[in-house]
Design a protein that fits this description.
Rossmann fold; binds nicotinamide-adenine-dinucleotide
């Protein structure tokens, strides 16, 4: 089976691609390479803007996975117009081309950030979406655009991912658990901006597993699916990171608690994803720290701009 990863040279794609190769899939990537190329040499990489693709570029793929766009709130807020175009319109354009080209399935990397600010309820895929900030609104636009294209010959699966964390060959230190790990090593302490806020955390290995389950699902299956490893408060995440880093390094880690208002607060259930796609998460926050720490010799300077989407993005001057 031949799979196209659009935006596949990013954080998630750089771990997903080698996993798909291991399973015997043929993998190609279209990407602007904002963060370089950390993909295995067996992956054909086409350096191209998704908006420059035509139907001909999509012919021959069995499935297309969208991993592009501006991935996080700071990027979305720095350039809201480009955010709405990249996260809202771009997935729909690519799904439209894929359908024209006879691709059988389109998988969209959506986000649980569509849920917005919720009050102590477990949200499923039928719960209301109430986001009022550029990233969440644009991810929802992208999701709705692609989902309505599904029909008997074109399956569309949107994976609403929790905050993905853990090690990838294209590493990010701007994602909550990874950021806390970096702060432990650099500053000897963790800053918790708001201890009571809930977040679904998704170990990147569980995320990759979610994409595998979506790829392998019966082609009659379409729809929106939550994926997370577990729900945690940010205070809990801070405590778990502290404990695990102290165990691994023997270093004492401090915690600073702040009271900064957050506009995102949600916890989700992935029961539907388990029932329909067979998705089961395996990892915890402590596992994420063990995995990130295992690769510590690869990171060099933690402040390198390419570990932070917003810094790289500002340098690109888009
Ligand atoms: N990382 C997370 O925590 C998370 C959580 C939920 C959803 N998501 C979604 O998952 C997807 C992948 O996330 P990620 O963390 O791997 O992001 P990333 O920023 O690491 O990678 C995005 C990739 O897309 C490429 N790209 C951007 N615009 C492009 C264009 N016009 N044409 C071609 N390539 C383009 C970039 O060069 C980059 O390699 C994104 O859509 C993101 O919104 C991510």
């Amino acid at each position: 089976m031949k799979i196209l990863l659009a935006g596949g040279a990013g954080y998630i794609g750089s771990l997903l691609a080698p996993t798909l190769l291991e399973r015997g899939y043929e993998v190609e990537v279209i990407d602007l390479l904002w963060f370089g190329n950390h993909l295995p040499k067996e992956v054909k990489v086409i350096k191209k803007d998704i908006f420059d693709c035509q139907k001909e570029d999509l012919i021959g793929y069995d499935q297309v996975i969208f991993l592009g766009g501006l991935s996080n709130d700071p990027m979305a807020e720095f350039n809201p117009a480009l955010n709405f175009i990249s996260n809202g319109a771009q997935p729909s354009y690519l799904a439209y081309l894929a359908k024209l080209a006879g691709v059988k399935r389109f998988i969209y990397g959506s986000s649980c950030s569509v849920y917005g600010y919720t009050v102590n309820e477990l949200y499923d895929e039928d719960s209301p979406v109430t986001c009022a900030y550029p990233y969440g609104i644009s991810k929802l636009q992208g999701e709705r655009g692609v989902i309505q294209m599904q029909d008997d010959n074109f399956s569309v699966i949107a994976l609403r991912q929790g905050t993905v964390c853990g090690y990838s060959p294209r590493m990010r230190f701007d994602l909550i658990v990874n950021t806390m790990y970096k702060s432990c090593l650099v500053d000897g302490k963790i800053t918790v901006n708001n201890a009571s806020i809930w977040r679904p955390i998704l170990d990147i290995r569980d995320a990759v597993n979610g994409y595998l389950r979506a790829i392998q699902a019966d082609l009659h299956i379409s729809g929106v699916f939550n994926i997370a490893s577990d729900n945690y408060t940010v205070g809990q995440v801070g405590d778990l990171v502290k404990e695990q880093v102290e165990t691994l390094t023997g270093q004492k880690i401090g915690i600073e608690i702040k009271q900064i208002q957050d506009f995102r607060n949600y916890k989700v259930t992935w029961q539907k994803t388990k029932t329909i796609l067979g998705y089961e998460p395996k990892h915890t926050v402590s596992d994420i720290i063990v995995d990130v720490h295992k690769h510590r010799d690869e990171y060099g300077n933690f402040e390198n701009d390419h570990y932070y989407n917003i810094r790289t993005f500002k340098k690109l001057k888009l």
